[in-house]
Amino acid sequence: MAIRRIVELGDPLLRVISGEVTEMSAAFSTLDDLRDTLHEFQRVQGFGRGIAAIQIGVAQRVIYIEIGGEVFELINPVLTQMSDEKFRMWDDCFSFPNLMVELERSESVTLRYQDRSGEWHEVEAEGAFSELLQHEVDHLDGILSIDRALDRRESFMTRTQWLRSLEKNPLRTS
């Protein structure tokens, strides 16, 4: 268990496609490190809900999420369904925490994953949880939210400016 350095935008490691976990025990220390790193990021930055293994330099298909009072340890996650209905939102990322990106995500998804014992589970998610799952699975495929920006000119702003825009227009979040 350790707090790990978060890989930042520009590091080619973020573009690596993560490999499947074939031995469940290989993911245990990664999950523990993801949890500890998430908690430290939350302490320092004041936000954060999930992190993918590649963001700490481990090219395994592993994600750790805390949302709505629940913990999700996702090994070999696969999005099996994504709704055609989309919503717009401003996304951020641990790998570039001061940059906000406007993009679209599916309103709902279904995700299959394995737990620490290797058992398969399925979770259906909507709204914020759906968006988070899509964001983290993208990381495992070497895709960043900047790749999904709605346009190149108007879809980026700093976190400070985004917070200012919320003060002026609180509905701008999605």
**Inertia-based shape:** globular
Cα-atom radius of gyration? 16 Å
Work out the number of β strands: 8
Strand content: 25-35%
User: Average pLDDT value?
Assistant: 93
Describe the structure.
- It is built from three helices and eight strands.
- Helices cover 26% and strands 30% of the residues.
- The protein is an alpha+beta fold.
- The model has no long low-confidence stretch (mean pLDDT 93).
- The chain has a five-stranded antiparallel β-sheet with strand order 1-2-3-6-7. Strands 4-5-8 form a three-stranded antiparallel β-sheet.
For the structure shown, list the relevant keywords:
3-stranded antiparallel β-sheet, 174 residues, 30% strand, single chain, 8 strands, 26% helix, 5-stranded antiparallel β-sheet, alpha+beta
Helix and strand arrangement:
Elements: H1 25-45, E1 50-52, E2 62-67, E3 70-82, E4 86-91, E5 99-106, E6 108-114, E7 120-126, H2 127-140, E8 156-158, H3 159-168
Structure summary:
The protein is an alpha+beta fold and 174 residues long. It is built from three helices and eight strands, in the order αβββββββαβα. The radius of gyration is 16 Å and the shape is globular.
